[in-house]
Amino acid sequence: MDMERKMKSSITVIGTGRMGSALASSLIQAGHTTTIWNRTRQKTDSLAKLGAIVAPSVEAAVMAGEIVIVNVSDYDATKALLHSDAIGSAIRGKLIVELTSGTPTGAREAAEWYTKHGASYLDGAIMATPDYIGTDAGTILLAGPRAAFDSHSDVFRALGGNVQHISEEPGRANALDSALLALMWGALFGTLHAIAVCQSEEIELDELARQWSATAPVIDGLVTDLIKRTSAGRFASDSESLSSISAHHGSMHHLMELMQSRKIDRSVVDGYDAIVKRAIAAGHLHDDFAALSQFLAVGK
Hints:
Distance between the termini: 62 Å
Largest sheet: 8 strands, mixed
Strand order of the largest sheet: 3-2-1-4-5-6-7-8
Strand content: 5-15%
Number of strands: 8
Shape: elongated
Helix content: 40-55%
CATH architecture of the largest domain: 3-Layer(aba) Sandwich
Structural class: alpha/beta
CATH topology of the largest domain: Rossmann fold
Radius of gyration: 24 Å
CATH class of the largest domain: Alpha Beta
Number of helices: 13
């Protein structure tokens, strides 16, 4: 075991909140020498008991690892911690893996700063909750130099069974993260609307759960079809269309009337309606629902 540990990369994890702690714990369990640092030192105690080395400073933490994984609140927090002359000198030859939420632009700016200071840089998006880290289903998307990813496959495998390199372009992981979050929030806010409607109409939420289980495969099919048709530019209704804008428009107004009468917040649904109205005004009333993808640009 000692020989195996010596052969493994030494890792530093900056930020040991719930997600950072899950990352560090998985690395420790995989046998990596793991150094940690957190602004609030008490949050490192449980990891220290597992065998993590608690660094006295950010500079010491960065110096200790061949690979430095950053998981703090946002890119501004990362800049405040790491973008200094002292850290810039310390990171030469190291691999920096940013697993902090941010924007594609922020990722590109970070990549420029780290590479300017002689480090390799991978920008990542964690598509999982902390309990999935280290499991076969743990998904992390990484973007940046493919060689840096391939050289440390054992490290990434320790973090999850579905850690993927998706692009050399450093902003790609965060861009895809934002896209998937938009899809997730659509589902979650839709669920909030459904709950509000059921509560206003005195429908038990257990009944909503049962009917969702029956309806979910249909919705999954609609989402898959929407992505495929938009990718192919098949916006006109045809024999394979699953739904048209006109059908959704009518049903949406029924929902809006119900929400109005029950005093349920309509702001999100009003936003949907505005997009539909732009498409209808442009002559797409009877086209496939996928035609709406052309009307997301503000002012179109």
